[in-house]
Design a protein that fits this description.
Elements: H1 3-11, E1 35-45, H2 56-74, E2 77-87, H3 92-108, E3 112-120, E4 124-134, E5 149-153, H4 158-166, H5 174-185, H6 191-196, E6 203-207, H7 211-222, E7 225-229, H8 237-243, H9 256-266, E8 272-277, H10 282-291, E9 296-303, E10 307-311
Parallel strand pairs: 2-3, 7-10
Antiparallel strand pairs: 1-4, 2-4, 5-8, 5-9, 6-8, 7-9
Helix pairs in contact: 2-3, 4-5
This protein binds adenosine-5'-diphosphate and magnesium ion.
């Protein structure tokens, strides 16, 4: 099969919202009046971001999901995407499943694939997503104010727990693994929540490299500090059952409890939103999140100064709460 047959068969779908979709040297689209374009790219590399034998359907889903998550974090409405893909060989079954997973999520979010690039090489998947956000309404990292409450959506740590099981760093029963595996393989981008937070959140980002590492980006950009209460961080039944978080603190280094605490504070791949909002918007945050069906939890607040302090249930500072994932460290 030629490169062009492959593109036609697997990556060409109708694009009614674009002026011109796949097939020319560039795609064309019109940004709605009063909006600015939000653009972001996220690349998934085989062996770094996923196992080479990952299920292709869910890999297609995740390739787009991590990009939609960036739109969610900006309060942007995702509209179009391009897909640059390097493939070691043409595997029809793999491509069919991959594109089915990709387009299922694209359809759910009304996103159209308008172009990309296809080449031979080690498996590598890169989406550029294009979204719209009304001028001056994007949720940025730099807006956190002293006194803001810090919130997160969903539960944290399940994706890291599932990954640790696959890497045999921890052993889960089949039932428990089945409960946390979707967090790793099938992340649900919080696009509706991001849109709902326009106008009330002062800052936001998505958690892709662990809560503390990502929250630090908000703190740096906003030149503020934070206090986070470990016991208030939402965790799944499965993780709570294993860890009994809040665990005896400080968790002994190298212990089971410390490992689980690390998943919650520094585990990657959660793709939940972390955002800050003024206290007087508390009820509105709860109301809007409920309306879009996404659980949100207040986990701390913004303080003057810099850095993040994590406290246990007794108010004691947890030392050495480590930072997020960094590819080059
Ligand atoms: P060019 O050589 O001019 O860069 P290509 O031959 O790479 O164009 O691509 C032909 C068309 O197919 C272009 O419109 C491009 O955007 C689209 N395309 C290529 N690869 C993909 C892909 N993986 N998914 C979606 N569209 C793609
Ligand atoms: Mg090309």
């Amino acid at each position: 099969m030629s490169e062009f047959d492959l593109i036609r068969r697997h990556f060409t779908r109708p694009t009614p919202s674009a002026v011109l979709g796949v097939g020319d040297d560039a795609a064309l689209f019109q940004v709605s009046e009063g909006n600015v374009l939000a653009v972001s790219s996220d690349m998934l590399v085989s062996g770094t971001h996923f196992f080479p034998d990952a299920d292709p359907y869910w890999l297609g889903h995740k390739t787009l999901a991590v990009n939609l998550s960036d739109m969610a974090a900006m309060g942007a409405n995702p509209r179009w995407a391009t897909l640059a893909i390097a493939l070691p060989s043409v595997d029809e079954a793999w491509l069919s499943a991959f594109s089915a997973g990709f387009f299922a999520l694209a359809k759910a979010h009304h996103v159209e694939l308008i172009g990309g690039d296809t080449t031979r090489g080690a498996l590598n998947l890169c989406v550029t997503i294009l979204g719209e956000v009304p001028q001056h309404q994007a949720l940025r990292r730099a807006g956190a104010q002293v006194g803001d409450e810090i919130w997160v959506s969903g539960c944290l740590g399940d994706a890291a727990l599932a990954l640790a099981h696959l890497q045999q760093r921890i052993e889960l029963t089949e039932v428990k693994f089945a409960a946390v595996a979707p967090a790793l393989h099938q992340p649900q981008p919080r696009v509706a929540l991001g849109l709902a937070l326009r106008g009330i959140a002062n800052s936001a980002l998505d958690i892709s490299d662990g809560l503390l590492g990502d929250l630090a980006h908000i703190l740096d950009a906003s030149q503020v500090g934070a206090t986070v209460e470990l016991a208030s961080i939402p965790v799944s039944e499965t993780l709570r059952g294993l860890a009994l978080i809040p665990c005896p603190s400080p968790a002994e280094e190298g212990s089971h409890a410390a490992l689980l605490q690390q998943f919650v504070l520094s585990g990657g791949d959660d793709y939940e939103l972390c955002f800050t909002a003024p206290v007087h918007h508390h009820a509105d945050v709860v109301h809007r999140a409920r309306k879009v069906g996404v659980p949100v939890t207040r986990i701390g607040h913004i303080v003057a100064g810099q850095g993040c302090v994590v406290r246990d249930a007794a108010g004691k500072i947890i030392k050495g709460a480590s930072n997020g994932y960094d590819h080059f460290r």
